[in-house]
């Protein structure tokens, strides 16, 4: 009997404690976290990374093999078109030219002899002293000597050209970005022309080659403004314009991108070739508009009905969805919850709005909201109503 009374007392205390704990959490006041609707500017952009390059970048190489005898330009040297920048040892090519000149002289002498023989045989034939076959043979020998002279002239011209290629000239006005050889180094041009210098035409005008994903390329058009930064100047924003959108796709690990060329004015020469640029292509801009935090678009009360699904975008050939352009963003309807009332009487009020562009942090509110409205982004306290029921006593199931 005493044990039964003891268990009843324990069960009563446990049940009372559980009921108090449940009620205290159930009745806890809900505290709303809000964000104020403000006015300001919004910029929607497409981000990418790219590399700064000179607009015209020429690799100066050698068409012949040999030892570098002289280098008349170095890193950062300013050069003019036609200026000598390097010299390859010409001694071997000079010897080949002399040999070709000798071969040509020998061929010309053979031509003179063949011409004399042909003339003599022709006179003898007129006198019926020499047979026709002898005349034909002498004329053929004359033609062969003429062809041999042309061959030797061609070989001489080739050797002269090779000798001229020992002197390397700058093809453009510009500045030497890099020098890839040293004096005394041997360059071999058997398969491809070895690069000696890399010359940029004008570093005051540069371009960024950036790869834009296929999902964003539809929002990019020529002459759009571009803001970008480089690691060398993290606190400075540079500007440019979209100059070209190339149609050739670049596929890396099934990711398709398109090369977008951005023109840059580098009058102060702060930007260097090869720098990595963090690019933001501005596709839409709004000034002095109502904007609200993106967190307000994600908030839903626990008892709210699920948000209506956004109608599917029209399908294109091949089954792809059309990506909404920035100018079509105003057609998107959203539901947000505005806090109405003061103190304990404050209640969330669902409001249908039309949203515009977004910069990833704030979204433009076109219709449905006023400046200084308090829009709910979350709650504290009242969310505990979803806790499990209070623990029951071990005897609740028995009795």
Order of adjacent strands in the largest pleated sheet = 2-11-14-13-12-15
Number of helices: 4
Termini Cα gap: 17 Å
The Rg value, from CA coordinates, equals 43 Å
Write down the secondary-structure element order.
HEEEEEEHHEEEEEEEEEHEEEE
- Record field, number of beta strands: 19
Low-confidence stretches: 308-330, 383-399
Bin the strand percentage.
35-45%
Main sheet overview: 6 strands, antiparallel, barrel
Helix and strand composition category: alpha+beta
What overall form do the CA principal axes indicate? Answer: rod-shaped
What does this structure look like?
The protein has 399 residues and is α+β, with helices and mostly antiparallel strands. It has 4 helices and 19 strands. It has helices at residues 2-26, 91-126, 132-164, 295-298, and strands at residues 31-36, 38-54, 57-61, 66-71, 78-79, 84-88, 167-169, 174-179, 186-187, 195-200, 205-213, 225-230, 233-252, 255-265, 276-293, 332-340, 347-358, 362-367, 374-380. The strands form 4 sheets. The protein has a 6-stranded antiparallel β-barrel with strand order 2-11-14-13-12-15. Strands 3-10-8-5 form a 4-stranded antiparallel beta sheet, with no helix packed on it. Strands 7-6-4-9 form a 4-stranded antiparallel beta sheet, with no helix packed on it. Strand 17 and strand 18 form a beta hairpin. Helix 2 packs antiparallel against helix 3 (132-164). The longest helix has 36 residues, at 91-126. It starts with a helix and ends in a 19-residue tail after the last strand. Residues 308-330 and 383-399 have low confidence and may be disordered.
């Amino acid at each position: 009997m005493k044990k039964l009374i003891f268990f009843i007392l324990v069960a009563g205390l446990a049940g009372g404690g559980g009921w108090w704990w449940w009620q205290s959490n159930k009745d806890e006041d809900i505290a709303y976290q809000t964000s104020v609707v403000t006015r300001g500017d919004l910029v929607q952009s497409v981000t990418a990374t790219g590399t700064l390059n000179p607009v015209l970048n020429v690799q100066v190489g050698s068409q012949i093999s040999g030892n570098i005898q002289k280098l008349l330009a170095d890193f950062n040297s300013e050069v003019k078109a036609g200026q000598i920048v390097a010299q390859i040892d010409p001694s071997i090519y000079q010897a080949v030219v002399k040999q070709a000149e000798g071969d040509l002289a020998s061929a010309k002498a053979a031509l003179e002899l063949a011409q004399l023989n042909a003339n003599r045989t022709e006179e003898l034939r007129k006198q019926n002293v020499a047979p026709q076959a002898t005349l034909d043979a002498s004329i053929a020998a004359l033609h062969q000597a003429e062809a041999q002279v042309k061959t030797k002239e061609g070989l001489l011209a080739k050797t002269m050209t090779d000798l001229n290629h020992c002197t390397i000239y700058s093809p453009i006005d510009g500045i030497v970005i890099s020098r890839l050889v040293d004096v005394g180094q041997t360059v071999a041009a058997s398969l491809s022309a070895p690069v000696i210098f890399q010359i940029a035409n004008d570093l005051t005008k540069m371009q960024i080659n950036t790869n834009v994903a296929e999902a964003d390329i539809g929002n990019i058009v020529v002459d759009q403004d571009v803001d970008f930064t480089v690691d060398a100047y993290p606190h400075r924003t540079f500007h440019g314009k979209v100059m070209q959108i190339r149609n050739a796709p670049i596929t890396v690990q099934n990711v398709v991108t398109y090369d977008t060329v951005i023109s840059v004015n580098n009058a102060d020469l702060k930007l260097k070739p090869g720098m990595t640029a963090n690019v933001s292509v501005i596709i839409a801009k709004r000034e002095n508009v109502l904007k609200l935090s993106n967190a307000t678009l994600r908030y839903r009360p626990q008892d709210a009905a699920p948000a209506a699904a956004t109608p599917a975008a029209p399908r294109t050939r091949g089954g792809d969805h059309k990506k909404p352009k920035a100018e079509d963003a105003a057609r998107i309807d959203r539901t947000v919850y505005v806090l109405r009332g003061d103190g304990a009487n404050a209640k969330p009020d669902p409001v249908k709005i039309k949203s515009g562009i977004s910069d990833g942090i704030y979204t433009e509110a076109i219709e449905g909201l006023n400046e200084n409205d308090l829009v709910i982004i979350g709650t504290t306290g009242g969310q505990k109503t979803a806790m499990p029921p209070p623990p029951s006593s071990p005897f609740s199931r028995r009795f």
